[in-house]
Specification:
mainly alpha; single chain
Length: 286
């Protein structure tokens, strides 16, 4: 198995652990505080990981690279706002299309080329994720009721994919370790900016373990998953790494079946099969 694929699957697995917790936490903690907590975790996770893995060797990026990393951070911060706008099972399903913008940008600006089989694998894997995440019983009524979630979901997905592209550019320029240290520092400034803009989201709920623990778990694993993700960018093309990491909804479904005894529907089963086939084509279609 290629190293970039192994690291991508590791990132997807870590993200899947915190996904359910993050969903539950949004019922009590605003998107603003989700972003602030997640950005704080970047200091605790990225800097130690970068220093240890990089053997305390790093470089200070140029201003253009810092600007690119800042754009990447901004691109991700819309996610919690997007899933707050509607049923998370609907807005979350649209996040499955985020590799599309990454693949297109990597093809145009980084001149990455992938094989026909890998292209088919990307399409099959993304289709599988959509089948898993999309509750068809709610879709028609949600579309007729309001379209806000649809707009937010699409914008969030496209921005997330664009953020992945920016991070790939930064990793290419300074390596994953200098990139992680820089984004951890930049993220704190972004938190301040987010706090200044989102006046409605500043209010904290009453402090309680039950309300904050899901958010802490969800944001912690969301940040932790980016460590193998950035390392995958260092050894593999963005046009393959990002689609490979989009399988995490399938892992969530499988874990829920094993540990929570939740039934896997036929639609989800087809989606899981599509993802497995897609990943095989990604890894061995080159």
């Amino acid at each position: 198995m290629p190293m970039w694929l192994l690291l991508s699957l590791l990132a997807a697995g870590v993200w899947s652990i915190g996904q359910v917790a993050a969903k539950k936490g949004l019922a009590h903690v605003s998107p603003l505080w989700n972003n602030i907590i997640a950005n704080f975790f970047t200091l605790l996770i990225y800097i130690p990981a970068a220093l240890v893995l990089g053997k305390f060797s790093f470089s200070i990026p140029s201003l253009p690279v810092i600007f690119i990393i800042t754009l990447a951070g901004l691109s991700y911060m819309i996610f919690f706002y997007a899933i707050e706008k509607g049923d998370i099972s609907l807005t979350g399903s649209l996040s499955a299309i985020y590799p599309i913008s990454t693949v297109l940008l990597a093809f145009i600006f980084l001149h990455e080329r992938i094989s026909l089989l890998q292209t088919i694998g990307i399409i099959v894997a993304i289709t599988g994720v959509i089948l898993i995440a999309l509750p068809t019983s709610k879709l028609e009524s949600a579309i007729h009721k309001h379209k806000t979630w649809l707009i937010w979901g699409i914008v969030s997905a496209l921005l997330s994919g664009t953020g992945d592209f920016f991070n790939k550019v930064a990793v290419n320029q300074v390596g994953p370790y200098s990139q992680m240290i820089t984004i951890a520092l930049v993220a704190q400034a972004l938190s301040v900016g987010n706090y200044m803009i989102d006046k409605k989201g500043r209010k904290l709920p009453k402090l309680s373990f039950n309300k904050f623990f899901p958010t802490l778990v969800g944001t912690f694993f969301a940040v932790l998953g980016f460590v193998p993700f950035f390392l995958a960018f260092h050894v593999g093309p963005a046009s393959l790494v990002t689609p490979a990491t989009s399988i995490y909804p399938a892992i969530v479904v499988i874990l829920a079946n094993i540990f929570l005894h939740e039934r896997i529907t036929k639609q989800q089963g087809v989606g899981i099969g599509g993802i497995i086939l897609g990943i095989m084509l990604l890894g061995f279609g080159g």
